[in-house]
Amino acid sequence: MVFDVCVKQTADKTWTMGQSIFWSIRDILKETEGTGLKYKMRVRVKVDKKGDIGNAFSYAHAYFNMNDWAGSSVQLIAIPAQAVNNREWQWYELPDVIEYRPDVRQIVYVVAENNPENVSAIYVDTFELVPVTEK
User: Fold this and answer.
1) Statement: the pTM of the whole predicted model exceeds 0.85
2) Which of 26, 45, 39 is nearest to 130 (CA)?
3) DSSP codes of every residue in 16-38
4) Long-range contacts of the stretch 25-31 (C-beta < 8 A, 24+)
5) In terms of Cα–Cα distance, which of 92, 100, 95 is closest to 127?
6) How far is CA 104 from CA 3, 6, 71, in A?
7) pLDDT for residue 43
8) In the beta sheet, which residues pair with residue 106?
9) Topology of domain 2-132, CATH
10) What span, in angstroms and rounded, lies between the C-alpha atoms of 54 and 72?
11) Bigger pLDDT: 2 or 109?
12) Is the per-residue pLDDT at 5 higher than 70?
């Protein structure tokens, strides 16, 4: 399953999870309820980089309460500016599998870090849920 977007977020403020570039995956995952199907999430990101200090962006899988925006990240990965190539699309994958939970809303998201001295902006063009089989 693929969600194509092309979104830019500047790296000059502290963005909240609610202001992140996100994909609500609950309804997609609900279709797999009872099947045991699990996914890995990948996202493709490009960074306008000015330096190598600090983090460029973070990405995560998160749970939210069903009736409000209270929630937290399950997996949060911070990507250092040093680890990205300037203005090149790169794929990033969450290490853990994602599966449907009926008691929460689920999203995957990317957020630029507040690091304007080293990062101008990030761009996200694709989120992907890739089916996995665990052994």
Assistant:
1) yes
2) 39
3) -GGGSEEEE-HHHHHTTTTTT-E
4) 25/98, 25/106, 25/107, 25/108, 25/129, 26/100, 26/104, 26/105, 26/106, 26/107, 28/1, 28/129, 29/98, 29/99, 29/100, 29/101, 29/106, 30/100, 30/102
5) 92
6) 21, 27, 9
7) 95
8) 63
9) Jelly Rolls (2.60.120)
10) 23
11) 109
12) no
Q: What confidence tens digit (pLDDT) does each residue in 53-83 have?
A: 999 999 999 988 877 766 778 889 999 999 9
Buried b (16+ CB within 10 A) or exposed e, 5-36: eeeebebeeebebeebbbbebbeebeebeeee
Percent of the chain at pLDDT > 90 equals 58
Q: Where are the domains of the chain?
A: 2-132
Sign of the dihedral defined by the CA atoms of residues 17, 109, 87, 90, in that order: positive
The DSSP secondary structure of 84-135, one letter per residue, reads S-BT--EEEE-SS-B---TTSEEEEEEEE-S-TTTEEEEEEEEEEEEEE---
Query: 């761009």: which residue's tokens?
Result: 123
Separation between Cα atoms, residue 127 and residue 65, nearest integer Å: 22
Chain segment 109-126, per-residue pLDDT in tens? 999 999 999 999 999 999
- Side chain identity, residue 62: A
Cα–Cα–Cα angle for 34, 35, 41, rounded to 5 degrees: 110
